[in-house]
Predict the 3D structure of the following.
Amino acid sequence: MKRASRESVADRLSAICQEHGLDPEVRSKLALILEGLAGEHAPTAVGEPSEAVDVHIADALSGLEVPEILDTDILIADLGSGCGVPGLPLAAALPRASVVAVEASGRRCDFIAAVAADAGIPNITATKARAEEWTDGLGTCDVVIARALAPLAVIVEYAAPLLKLGGALVAWKGSPSDDELDSGARAAELTGLEVLDSAAVTPWPAGGQRQLIRMRKVAETPQRFPRRAGVAAKRPLGGN
């Protein structure tokens, strides 16, 4: 496959920003995120800018279609942030929000912090922790986001204890099965969340459609959650 030129990547980035009403300053920060992702030691398999502009930037910014993410002066936790997506692009686009990238790998945390510094994105910090062990975040988050992290029921268990009452979980999913959705809904009932909706988005044409699954915290999460590290993944809530 022929790689896109630097100019076509720039054009694509401009089109993404125009779609979401983002100004040139944000576009410049997103371009610097792309440079970071293209680095030799970036912790991602998709670092080539011609791909990353869609797979990482466009996909992350599809979250701007969710009303709760657009609220100002909020705390957003990006669980299992990996290479800093969707947290870094959303922090660039939402300068009044505070974003915490929760990531178990110290190397990845260092990468996220370095890219944030290079791109001039002061409103994101990286915290080295497993999602279920991030005790400083308990009950503090307005929004929890997760992309390519775990089955929905597992994400629900990670997110529910971190959310304030009225806070929202937004999970990026490709084409979740009915079983995954049902298990996620049952897990939500057990942890104080309710399913609101699933928004279909197409961040870029060739990537196909994906779902942004949205839940709200409507009751206190029982104190037994989250279970100790690793248990949620081994024995997900909401199973048959």
The chain has a mean pLDDT of 95. The longest helix spans residues 6-19.
